[in-house]
Amino acid sequence: MLSDPNTIKPGAGPVRVRRPAFWTLAMRCTQIAALVDIAFFILFLALDSPVLAWVNVVSVGMYVGAYYALKTRRNRLAVWLFWTEVLAHAALGITMIGWGSGFHYYLLLFIPAICLSAPRKWVFPGLCALWAYYVALDVLMWSIEPLQPIPQTALYVVHLFNLTVVFAMFSYLSVFYLGVVIATQRKLQAVAITDVLTGLLNRRQMQYLLDQEVERFKRSGQPMGLMLLDLDHFKQINDTYGHDMGDKVLQEFAVVLNEQFRSQDLVARWGGEEFLVAMPNSTGADVVRAAERVCQATAGRDWSEWMGEGRNVTVSIGVSEIKAGDDAAQALSRADEALYQSKASGRNCVTELKVGSNSGSNKKHSVSC
Ligand SMILES: Nc1nc2c(ncn2[C@@H]2O[C@H](COP(=O)(O)OP(=O)(O)OP(=O)(O)O)[C@@H](O)[C@H]2O)c(=O)[nH]1
């Protein structure tokens, strides 16, 4: 299984989010709120409440202003317009036609907004202030009569309308935040299992998957091979061309590996300039063939972009096949011994370390350069 290069870009540092999801959501909310106020304008005209109808015209203007403020990244202005509109509109609606209108429900939408977007130190004071405003309006309406009452049926229509809009907005916000949480979890998971420089699996994840594959091998008996790869004279590359160029070579080598393996193969950066590949359903001979392909692809690659004309990169590889009674560490240690033999044999070659089926002492190296 190769890591998905679309999820984590090799060498990518922390991602700078250009327009955080919250502000995109805020833009959508201004559009929805403006549409709701247009509906109110028509409703209050029909109910013969011109004052409330024109209040909604002002509200639409404020939302249009907030939308353009967000578009031009004047987020503070947009937030100010949004808050002012909702607080003032709720107070006006309630004092004009009564608590039964349900305009106070809109204030509840600020609870998740404050919790999720305000700076931490402002969350508690913000919630307290919102609660105080809500209660003050409630108490006020216990002590005064609505200034411009509308018929009971019309009040009920307004109440139902407000309840429905707030219900829909809460549902929309919940679905939106759920999406944000799921996407964030996926990103974190990808970061936790990926090597940041090459985009391949990292060592921890490879170790975990390798143990699982060995368990699978024990159950199914399907052959499985390991390949340990180490770039040759990498220190020299670093010393001659610099550490950054060394990093580029590692990234390009990861591209070579991605090109050479099947989707079910596990390809990882094992550490430094060392890589590990596990090939399920493959015998030692299959793995040796694949390793020879990797050697050829590496040596045949055009590295001049990084190191100048005529300079080459080669890789030495050690191969082992998992045997009955093996655990991952034993198979790895054989691959490591085989890699050492490849280095000792002059590098740019593949060595397989074979063992007899019932004893580790019966070892045989086969080297192909
Ligand atoms: N640029 C870069 N270099 C690294 C990284 N990790 C390890 N290295 C370097 O890789 C080099 C490995 O050097 P050695 O272990 O001596 O091996 P080598 O020079 O490849 O020699 P042989 O393996 O014997 O062919 C060291 O200089 C490390 O600093 C990395 O992430 N980026």
UniProtKB/TrEMBL annotation:
<feature type="transmembrane region" description="Helical">
    <location>
        <begin position="103"/>
        <end position="119"/>
    </location>
</feature>
<feature type="domain" description="GGDEF">
    <location>
        <begin position="222"/>
        <end position="355"/>
    </location>
</feature>
<feature type="transmembrane region" description="Helical">
    <location>
        <begin position="51"/>
        <end position="70"/>
    </location>
</feature>
<keyword id="KW-0472">Membrane</keyword>
<keyword id="KW-0812">Transmembrane</keyword>
<dbReference type="Pfam" id="PF00990">
    <property type="entry name" value="GGDEF"/>
</dbReference>
<feature type="transmembrane region" description="Helical">
    <location>
        <begin position="77"/>
        <end position="97"/>
    </location>
</feature>
<dbReference type="InterPro" id="IPR043128">
    <property type="entry name" value="Rev_trsase/Diguanyl_cyclase"/>
</dbReference>
<feature type="transmembrane region" description="Helical">
    <location>
        <begin position="156"/>
        <end position="180"/>
    </location>
</feature>
<dbReference type="InterPro" id="IPR050469">
    <property type="entry name" value="Diguanylate_Cyclase"/>
</dbReference>
<dbReference type="InterPro" id="IPR000160">
    <property type="entry name" value="GGDEF_dom"/>
</dbReference>
<feature type="transmembrane region" description="Helical">
    <location>
        <begin position="126"/>
        <end position="144"/>
    </location>
</feature>
<feature type="transmembrane region" description="Helical">
    <location>
        <begin position="21"/>
        <end position="45"/>
    </location>
</feature>
<dbReference type="InterPro" id="IPR029787">
    <property type="entry name" value="Nucleotide_cyclase"/>
</dbReference>
<keyword id="KW-1133">Transmembrane helix</keyword>
<protein>
    <recommendedName>
        <fullName>diguanylate cyclase</fullName>
        <ecNumber>2.7.7.65</ecNumber>
    </recommendedName>
</protein>
